[in-house]
Amino acid sequence: MKRDSATDSNGSAKRARSYAVGGKELPSLGAPSAKPRSQTYVTAGQVVVISEVLEVEDPLTEVQELSAHLDRSRGVLLSSSYEYPGRYGQWSLGFVDPPVCLEAWSRKFRISALNCRGRPFLPTLLEALQATPAVAAVQKVGSDKIEGEVKQTEGYFAEEDRSKQPSVFSVVRAIVNIFESHEDSHLGLYGAFGYDLAFQFENIKLHKDRDPSQRDLVMYIPDNMLIINHQMQSAWRMKYDFAFAAGGKILSTKGMHDKGPEVHFKPRTQMPPGKDRRELKPGEFAKQVDVAKEKFKRGDLFEAVLSQTFREPCKARPSEVFHCLQRRNPSPYGFLMNLGEEEYLVGASPEMFVRVESNLKGLRVETCPISGTIRRGKDALEDAENIKTILADPKEESEITMCTDVDRNDKSRICEHGSVQVIGRRQIELYSKLIHTVDHVEGYLRPEFDAIDAFLVHTWAVTVCGAPKAWAMQFVEEMEPSQRCWYGASVGHVAFDGHLNTGLTLRTVRIKEGVAEVRAGATLLFDSVPESEEKETELKASACLNAVRNPHDVPSEVPRAPSLVQTQENHRVVLIDFEDSFVHTLANYIRQTGATVTTVRHTQAEHMLAAAKPDLVVLSPGPGRPTDFGVSKHIERLLTLGCRIFGVCLGLQSIVEHFGGRLGQLPLPMHGKPTEVQVREPGTIFKTLPSSFVVARYHSLYGLRPLPECLLETATVMPGLSSGDGIEPDKPILMGIQHKTLPIAAVQFHPESILTSPELGVQMLVNAFSL
User: Fold this and answer.
1) Residue range 299-341, pLDDT digits in tens
2) pLDDT digits over 472-524, tens only?
3) Domains of the chain
4) pTM metric for this prediction
5) Which entry of 649, 657, 658, 739 is annotated as an active-site residue?
6) Is 368 designated active site?
7) Does residue 750 have an active-site annotation?
8) Residue ranges of the Chorismate-utilising enzyme C-terminal domain (predicted)?
9) What angle do CA 593, 599, 605 make, to 5 degrees?
10) Which of 69, 186, 658, 750 is catalytic?
């Protein structure tokens, strides 16, 4: 690594967390800004900070080494591996062996020096906390710890001042105030916030026993950080030294080693006694949904988010689980945290909790509530259908509407009036197994509020508890069988320059003493189907559970359709092209059956058919009418040769006319339109297909009834369905025919279109060889 030798002077103006490109201000998208220079500066609490910036030659190797180090040492690795325009960029930031740790158990807290470099921090921190009105008691314990307790809220508080109440965040704010400086956007507190922190603000009656050793907060101050901005292809390391004036002495970290205690991860192959792999038996979560629906019916709740926990013995190291999730489940909030005490958090969260950045307008707070979930399809086409399904679902729309209305209410406590805006509505985000609908909401803080206030007024997001929020949190407390611990809270960074970036603790593996826990929830409404909601929790948990069980399996981003067996090898097909724009896609589908295909223009077909001796001849689609191409003569010639014939679109119309039928013209043309068809008589072409399915139509002409006596009607537009073609629904038009005695069949639709399932389209062509 090389040192950046330039040094800035003190006293620079407040630095905005945004970029100016071509004179236009752009948000950072959560990514670390451009590499800074080495510098020395003095914080608001009179701490001297010396930062040294080093170039990183091989960032990928450094990330691998850092993550492996986290298996045995305390620290944090944050990684955004998901991009979304205007919302997320790709970046990584991490450290091990931080000098200082803040932990909390309800209102009790402890600040620990984790190595000798942490000891110089303690006198200054103790002095500041002794002067903090919200702290009831604080004292130094030995040479390495400060312990204290925060006061209970007393007297009257206006709701607008909710975030100013005494809480553990009073300690967080005191630490931020000591180190406040706009000279550095990286230095800050990094770690995890627990769900029970909300009870310091919301008067919730607790129904469950709490593990007294379970921490509600673990935050670190780092002094050696690896930082990567993947989009800018830039990586650097920040090394810090600190000098404190305390008790008439200057205490400095300069020259001290940074090695902290190591505790190697202990894998587990069996569940410990008394721990079940599944917290709720199958069907029990669905019963809880029924209870919630009664609450909705009475008007006690609008929506609620209940969750359940799944457990596995964790044989893989936390770093292996992390890299597995990074490969299989790219997300904007990926993280690996060693919290000490044999506890790790490994996650790939899709959802921002709160992000605060300064720009020319002020302090901008934004959130991206996710509500609305559907499974990924087996390919892009099925993804598109699933996206249409979720966007058309009124239950899903109601779900996210309520979430965003509550979120806007949270911001309205502390934001400038008129500044709270929805800047993205029901936008689609694609993840490895799920598709989500997401809103994007912003506001600008009033001058008397800061990033910590913004964090606290959203505690916790409506998307993880429900609405009205206080009643929903009480319902969660009464219904769920265990303490949430970290689930539904957040992870991230409270920066000393005033910005904040946090993600919700979702899609997370909590590893404690070798047991991996994955908690997953579902947003419940009165319209919820209990069994479906239970399946949703199982689906959400599946990616993390699979990463724990099989971290080294090679993933596929999205499951792909299985390839068809090459059933028609050594078969020859002639595809007669009637000047169509889809003929080569049709040929591609035929080749997928294993057959050899020769495509020939209709003007050349006569000269090569006799010599080719094909096993099947396909009459392609085309513009105009069959008579424009003299298709009937081709059919006559093929009958003389004894060929199997399969017609597509114009091919069907040609067969109808050849055998004496008539064609009609649709009142409204159907070009690139989807239609559901019903199989009337499977015959040969539809014998292995569903009784109904969606196809693509590109036609204006169609076969009229009555059909010639020799032709059998095999498929039609779904009866009673208005397909947009202007034909009365009770007189569905022909979509498929087959000759009663000759090896001839045809379809009016296009089996090769993206609107027709590829598996069904290819299977029809396979079946055509059996004519």
Assistant:
1) 999 999 999 999 999 999 999 999 999 999 999 999 999 999 9
2) 999 999 999 999 999 999 999 999 999 999 999 999 999 999 999 999 999 99
3) 7-549 (3.60.120.10), 572-768 (3.40.50.880)
4) 0.83
5) 649
6) no
7) yes
8) 284-540
9) 130
10) 750
